[in-house]
Amino acid sequence: MRYCIFKTPGLDWKAFLPSNDPINTTMRLLITAAVLVVIQTLSQAEEVAGFAEMLQRDWLHQAELRYATVSETRVAPEDDAAGAVDGITNEQWGFHTGLEPNPYWQVDLGEVTDIGRVVLYNRCDACGERNKYIILSVSDDGTTWTKVWQNTGTMFYGATDSKPLSVDLTEKSARGQYLRLSLEGTNYLHLDEVQVYKPVGDENIALHKNATQSSTSQWSIKHTKPGVDGKKTIPDFVFQKVLESGRKLADALHNDGVDIAQAVAVFDAIEKGPQDIAAYFKLRQTIRHLALSNPLIDFDSVLFAKHAPAAFPHMSDQYYCFWQRGGGAIGVVENIKSEHPRFRNLTANWKNGTYFRPELSYDGKKVLFAYSEYDPGLAELPNKTDKSKIA
Fold first, then answer.
1. Would the pTM count as exceeding 0.70?
2. Distance from C-alpha of 71 to C-alpha of 180, rounded to nearest angstrom
3. pLDDT of amino acid 165
4. Where are the beta strands (DSSP E) in 115-237?
5. What digits encode the pLDDT tens for the residues 309-361?
6. d(Cα 282, Cα 164) in Å, to the nearest integer?
7. In sequence order, which ranges of the chain are alpha helices (DSSP H)?
8. pLDDT, average across residues 241-245
């Protein structure tokens, strides 16, 4: 890995900086990073595609993760297992069993049916290699199981590379009401999403179906469930917590001279009206607008590094080039306060690689960052931690 510096002509980098105040610079960049964590997949010099949908997916995911511990109800296997058939792929785990012998996850398809294809989205942030020998089984009654397929060591991802593992079962004559995924031996089992299709048609017949698993873990959560109209429902306690945080933010900004009347009116209406999924999105959108009205955020562009999760799970090793996956960039998100932000990839013409820790000079004319060119064979090289062994 090496450090690179390049000049940035044609960009008003002063938008990132206050008047010669490095302390305030740090504060402002931290505030912006906190409100823009939803930006995940971006394309060069284009409007961020599906930005509204990305926001909504992120808000739903936060409802599960941030407020999961608020509920006094124990997380049941069914609660956590629902995360693999919720239609959301986000690179992390949709469910997570405990460490146990022969862990499994299964879905009830509702009726005995022919199964033509199963698509598996792996956990991409870490530990996805545990699924290199995952087993697929089917059952008519949920008691007697028939093994129909086993992974033979193929590593796969899904959300990060748009290449989930697609298992063709048409020649296996796979048929059943229940589909089970399992591992042999003592291990954790976790996947991002599971999709099931009949031999003909493109309908995911596992979507929002009842699922369960062999155990839960400290990483298990209560996933939001679809209501009678098929849309997600938000628990009452989540609404109350988000409303509470929104009102606290409004009070704090009011003390800084921000006009909060419109936001408070929205909070009052939501508190009195039906608290459905549309109201939840309206609430989160209002809070986002409030956060971006902070007087400290007097700029409209953000410099950042984009990179894929490393292939090794421990923080101390994630920055080594021999654990990288490539796919990174140094970029700028512009028009951050609008509903249509745009992304500029400053390293679009560079070779595929990994980028870390961009720093901006105080005159706004140079960017310093770490860069390592991606080598797809380096991860498999013996003794790769010895630099003398790397060609």
1. no
2. 29
3. 96
4. 117-122, 135-139, 146-150, 165-168, 175-182, 186-187, 191-197, 211-213
5. 666 656 556 566 677 778 889 988 888 888 888 888 899 999 998 888 888 88
6. 33
7. 22-35, 51-65, 77-81, 236-255, 261-272, 277-292
8. 92
What is the arithmetic mean of pLDDT over 149-175?
Answer: 92
Q: What does the buried/exposed string (b/e) look like for 118-149 if buried means 16 or more CB atoms within 10 Å of the residue's CB?
A: bbbbbbbbbbbebbeebbbbbbeeeeebeebb
Backbone angles phi, psi at 43, to 5 degrees: -120, 155
What sign for the dihedral angle of Cα 132, 133, 139, 142?
A: negative
Question: How many whole angstroms from its chain centre is CA 13?
Answer: 29
* Strand ranges of the sheet holding 342-345, from the earlier edge strand across to the other edge: 46-47, 342-345, 329-334, 301-306
Most confident region among 26-30, 140-144, 217-221, 224-228 by mean pLDDT? 140-144
pLDDT at residue 48 in the model: 58
In degrees and rounded to multiples of 5, residue 381 shows phi and psi of -75, 130
d(CA 342, CA 45): 7
Domain spanning 74-213, CATH architecture:
Sandwich (2.60)
Q: pLDDT category, 231, cuts 50, 70, 90?
A: low
| Four-residue CA torsion sign, 281, 332, 44, 328 | negative
Farthest CA pair distance, the chain: 71
Contact between 193 and 82 under an 8 Å Cβ cutoff? The reply is no
Measured between alpha carbons, how far is 244 from 372 in angstroms, rounded to an integer? 44
Round to whole Å and give the CA distance between 387 and 321: 11
Tell me how far apart the alpha carbons of residues 133 and 149 are, in angstroms, rounded to a whole number.
10
Under 8 Å between Cβ of 366 and 5: yes
Mean pLDDT of 282-296: 93
CA angle 25, 256, 265 (to 5 degrees): 120
Identify which has the larger pLDDT, 148 or 319.
Answer: 148
Least reliable range by pLDDT among 54-68, 79-93, 350-364, 366-380:
54-68
Burial 12-22 (b: 16+ CB within 10 A, else e): ebeebbeeeee
Domain coordinates of the chain in residue numbers? Answer: 2-49+298-374, 74-213, 230-286
Percent of the chain topping pLDDT 70: 79
